[in-house]
Write a structure and sequence with these properties.
5-stranded antiparallel β-sheet, 150 residues, alpha+beta
Length: 150
Amino acid sequence: MKKDLIFALCGNHTKFYDWFYTNAKEFEKPNQELSQIWAKQIHSEIQKCYLNSWRVLVKDYTDDLRYFEGFLIDHALGDLPFSHAWLVNTNDQVIDPTLEPLGKKLKINAYLSKSYYGMELNKTWVIKTAIKLKRTGDFIFDYYEVNNPV
């Protein structure tokens, strides 16, 4: 993802931008098979990526998944970025349970032409924060503030 686009998306939050750009990781296409399995298990919903990813995270008894927040880039829509949450397994494969219901609704293969750019958030922190706040993410700015006190 281009550095100037990230800067524009982060607004005037220069310190956040520097932290995000320095620590973010880029991933190519999601693993469709694993994403579909998890989407079915948690009954994933369209436009609820934070909730869907959180549900997978708390059901992952293997402790093999990491939680990420950042941007989903849809190359079919001219590299349009969307704020998004997803999971990554120990093989660095993206698991995105939100794409399955989207694909069914639009009757498309929603797994094509996607890439991801984002930060890993500590899964214990994410689970505890969601319970404390009684909601799921977008937590990336909160995570930044906790890990980068003024």
